Amino acid sequence: MKTLPISLVAVSLLSSMSHAALAQTPGAPPPVAPASAPAPAPAPAPAPAPAPALAPAPALAPPVVWAPPAPPAPAPMLGTGASPIELMSLNLMLEKGLISKAEFESALHDLQESTGQQTASQQSVVFGRWATTLYGFIEGDMILDSTRSLTEVPGGTLIARGGTSNGSNARFTFGVRNTRLGIRMKAPEFDNVRTTAMLESDFLGNQPGIQTGPYPGTPLPSNPYTSEGAYFTNPTFRIRHANFKVETPVVDVLFGQYWQLFGWGSAYQPNSVEIQGLPGEIYARTPQLRISKAIKADPVTLEAAIAAVRPVQRDSGMPDGEAGLRFSVDSWKAAQTTGSTGTQTAPLSVAVTGLLRRVEVNQFATSSKVTNELTMSALAVDGFIPIVPGTKEKKDNSFSLQGEFATGYGYADMFSSTNFGVGFLVPPGAGFATTATSVKATYFSPDIDPGVVAYDGLGHLHGIQLTSYLFGAQYYLPGVEGKLWISGNYSHQESANSHYYAASSGSVDRTALLLAQDWFDVNLFVDPVPGVRVGMEYANTRDTYVDGIFAVNHRGQISGFFIF
């Protein structure tokens, strides 16, 4: 608090006191006449002089109280008039009219795989009619395997045979590499045209494998391995999805990396604690250009899509082609969790997709001058069937089934870590040729990833045949508001010809070739508090090799998720 100077206060007090005293002094009394003589006519008494007018005392100023200065008004954001940056959920954006119903449904479609029913309440940074949504989850895994065969992601990896060191000893894995982070961006809708983009990543990137010793390893080109500690604590950040989408009243166009259209993407992923993709599950992402159209005729929806996709062999000179149809009954829904975190309600649906590809593989010779061409195709049918319905508000007692069937040639890359042990034979003359002056190495480069095609001993090119099916069930226990459920899955995959292409070569061990693989699991999930999920699983993988030997792996897994 500020105070007035002492001198000013003193002057003010003296002035006030003088004014009060003068106001109380009476005027002089009139003269008294003598009593002995009659008084002459008295002269009029002079009027007393008026008191001089005094200036009013200055009033005391009120005390001055210090206060911080008011903050300046925020300047309008560039390009948005007076619109500030705000945080609001997709639900609130829909209520305020910042996004249309179609934009809202598009956001649910893009994010539900990762965040499920929480998608509608996701907080977005809103800048006028632009919006950016951050989403994902933190995952921790504890995994115990009965053999030394698998990493965190099982896929179609071969199980080590009994009687070997790897087949007779256990492996314990701790990991966080499946932690996921995504950003979805939305531009303002313009003339019924909606544009969005998404960038999604995790830490399961392609990095050097784990060295088996001696320790410490020497980082040489001939020893491209890393330590176990570096592999699990310094994982490689990788792209899962990176694409933009333009949705128009006529068609929708997607350009960039996204789910393969074959198998219809993430819509039919089974519910499991294990990291996707599971044995026998179509699970693949790739760069593509896709055109699709959804026709809604309440209560049903029909979707059609075609895509030009990154070819399985870059040197084939042309992209793979994929196409599909999906039919859904939107009024018949049940609770569904895709993967481990994508809890939602999904309608009865069935999807049929096809794949057509051509490869041009270097001739089966050490000095190849021509290529052998081969055209291959595959078909997949997927479905989700609500048995006991469920809604977003009431998942209790909801029960559903889902399944996938696929068959064809040369499409093993659509599955995780699946090649049935098939490699390429070594053609005659390969190795080292010694001349009088030097030693020359001669190699055969097939120019394509293993497991898709193979040569026989006569140099004929064949596509690897593959048939798979997978079935799953989910049941949400009553009385717990959808926070406790169980699930189970079974898959089988086999090849009718993979074992033919090693018979004429001693360089390939026939015992390493797989005839079939069977897998099943059972899972328990619980959501103890908002944002947190815990899952427990038992899984069993059984490989049948071409020589009739079985190899089995038992897996127990506990995983925790913080979903945001």
Molecular structure report:
The model is unreliable at about 1-40, about 75-80 and about 505 (pLDDT under 50). This protein has helices at about 5-25, 90-95, 100-115, 165-170, 230-235, and strands at about 85-90, 125, 130-145, 170-175, 180-185, 195-200, 240-245, 250-260, 285-295, 300-310, 320-340, 340-360, 370-390, 400-410, 430-435, 440, 455, 460-465, 465-475, 485-495, 515-525, 530-545, 550-564. It has 5 helices and 23 strands. The protein has a 16-stranded antiparallel barrel with strand order 3-5-6-7-8-9-10-11-12-13-14-19-20-21-22-23. The chain starts with 5 loop residues before the first helix and ends with a strand. The radius of gyration is 41 Å and the shape is globular. It is mainly β.
Keywords:
single chain; 564 residues; mainly beta; 16-stranded antiparallel beta barrel; two-stranded antiparallel ribbon; 5 helices; 9% helix; 42% strand; globular; disordered N terminus
Mean pLDDT: 84
Helical content (DSSP H or I, runs of 4+)? under 10%
- What is the CA-atom radius of gyration, in angstroms? 41 Å
What is the chain-wise order of helices and strands?
HEHHEEHEEEHEEEEEEEEEEEEEEEEE
How are the strands of the largest sheet arranged? 3-5-6-7-8-9-10-11-12-13-14-19-20-21-22-23
Number of strands: 23
Major sheet size, sense and barrel closure: 16 strands, antiparallel, barrel
Please give the oligomerization state of what you see.
Answer: single chain
Categorize the overall geometry: globular
- Which structural class should the secondary elements be placed in? mainly beta
Q: How large a portion of the residues is in β-strands, by DSSP E?
A: 35-45%
Count, helices: 5
- Termini separation comes to 49 Å
Low-confidence parts, pLDDT < 50 over ≥5 residues?
Answer: 1-38, 74-82, 503-507
